[in-house]
Design brief:
The strands form two sheets. Strands 1, 4, 5, 6, 7 and 8 form a six-stranded parallel beta sheet that branches. Strands 2-3 form a two-stranded antiparallel sheet. It is of the alpha/beta class and 168 residues long. 30% of the residues lie in helices and 26% in strands. It contains five helices and eight strands; from the N terminus they run βββαβαβαβαββα. The structure holds flavin mononucleotide.
């Protein structure tokens, strides 16, 4: 059976080394593409039906509200064929110590029982935060493998780290 790399990645202003910087290609997207290339997996980018704002001031407000209210974030391009995959790599940026609510919403659409899940994230500090705890409680019955966390500024230099993790 095939593997899937499913990820969300945000393009706009983000926080890097505690500074606000403009990025043109998401850090998580760069890692996701590397993983898909190494594993020959299908690549699926999770996109919101309503695009997120591009400025840091606005995205921060949207994300804070989402974290408080935990809404089901509508996905533009919902994946139909998850049953074709037995291994699913799930990638996301850390947004306030856990995964974005769009990832929680994506996961809630499927039954992951019996699947192998390999989580990866990019961040600015603090590794996965509480994301792995949340993933374990959300994906009952899945086998969740050790995660890969990469600092946003290191994604281009992390080929060896990614390769070692993929092959472990
Ligand atoms: C709204 C927002 C909240 C964030 N919160 C955290 C956080 O709690 N911990 C952390 O390490 N990084 C945090 N970051 C930084 C991102 O996780 C980091 O820049 C990541 O590499 C972005 O990935 P992307 O380009 O794929 O979206 C935050 C960024 C944004 C925009």
């Amino acid at each position: 059976m095939k593997s899937l790399v499913a990820y969300f990645s945000y393009v706009g202003q983000t926080e890097l080394n505690r500074q606000i910087v403009e990025i043109e290609k998401g850090h998580t997207e760069i890692v996701a593409e590397k993983i898909a290339k190494l594993t020959n997996a299908d690549l699926y980018k999770i996109e919101p039906a309503i695009a997120y704002p591009k400025t840091y001031a606005d995205i921060v407000n949207v994300v804070r509200k989402e974290n408080e209210e935990n809404p089901k974030v509508e996905i533009k391009n919902l994946l139909e064929n998850i049953n074709d995959y037995d291994t699913v790599y799930i990638g996301f940026p850390i947004w306030y110590r856990t995964y974005p609510r769009i990832i929680a919403s994506f996961l809630s659409n499927y039954d992951f029982a019996g699947k192998t899940v390999k989580p990866f994230c990019t961040n600015d500090e603090g590794s996965f935060g509480i994301a792995l705890l949340e993933l374990n409680s959300q994906l009952k019955g899945a086998t969740i493998k050790p995660g890969l966390a990469i600092h946003g500024s290191e994604v281009e230099k992390s080929q060896d780290k990614i390769e070692a993790w993929v092959n472990q």
